[in-house]
Every structure is written in C-alpha cells, then in structure tokens.
C-alpha cells in the first residue's frame, strides 16, 4: 500500500468519517485555519492517483469516497512501522512504547483483554 503524506492522511481521516463528500464538505469538517479549496482539491486528485479515493459525478461537481478502508490503511501502517523499526516484531514495538512510558499498566491490561477476546 502506498504511503500518505500528513496532509493526505488528514483529508482521508475526514473522508473516512464523512463516508462521501465534495471538497467543500471536507473543508467544512476541518479545523481553523481551514485550507484553501484549491489545496484540498489538489490533495484529493493526488489521493485519486494513489487509488485511495474515487468519485462519482453529481451535477457539475464530484462526490468523493474512500476506496481504501481506514482499518486496511491502519493495518498496513502498523505492519510497516513494525517492519521498518522493530524487525517485524510487535512484541518489540509494545516493549518500546512501554520503555517510553507511552503505555500504562491499564493500557496493557486492556490490550490483553482484547487479545483474550480474539482467542475466544
């Protein structure tokens, strides 16, 4: 899966929530200061070229929708992170976040609960 820039990922985050939208609707959901219409439109075209977004014509405009689900992108991104920085080991990745104190014992307990649910 292709990598997204921060700006592209930001647009995708809004589009995943909206499910489908025109450029103006995407901008409406963005925080201040809002980007220019042309900026968002250009990023949408880049996302089309990367095959993350598709559109349908509606009147004189376009309605855009994600071709890649948020969960598929999240999984690919997590796999890439584990592969590039932790030799493919999720154990090493979790250990790293523990050492950085980014994970609490409560967080780990919740992760273990999720793992146990998957096993059941």
Automatic annotation (TrEMBL):
Pfam family of the protein (one): Penicillinase_R
Presence of keyword Lipid biosynthesis: no
Sorted UniProt keywords: DNA-binding, Transcription, Transcription regulation
Signal peptide positions on this chain: none
Protein name per UniProt: Transcriptional regulator
Similarity-based family: Belongs to the BlaI transcriptional regulatory family.
Tree of life domain: Bacteria
Organism of origin: Nonlabens dokdonensis
InterPro entries tied to this protein: BlaI_family, WH-like_DNA-bd_sf, WH_DNA-bd_sf
């Amino acid at each position: 899966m292709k990598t997204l820039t921060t700006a592209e990922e930001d647009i995708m985050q809004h589009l995943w929530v909206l499910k489908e939208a025109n450029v103006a609707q995407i901008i409406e959901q963005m925080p201040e200061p809002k980007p220019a219409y042309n900026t968002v439109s250009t990023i949408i075209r880049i996302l089309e070229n990367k095959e993350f977004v598709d559109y349908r014509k509606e009147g004189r405009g376009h309605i855009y929708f994600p071709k890649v689900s948020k969960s598929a992108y999240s999984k690919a991104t997590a796999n890439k992170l584990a592969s590039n920085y932790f030799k493919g080991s999720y154990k090493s990745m979790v250990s790293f976040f523990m050492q950085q104190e980014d994970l609490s014992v409560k967080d780990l307990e919740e992760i273990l609960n999720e793992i146990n649910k998957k096993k059941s």
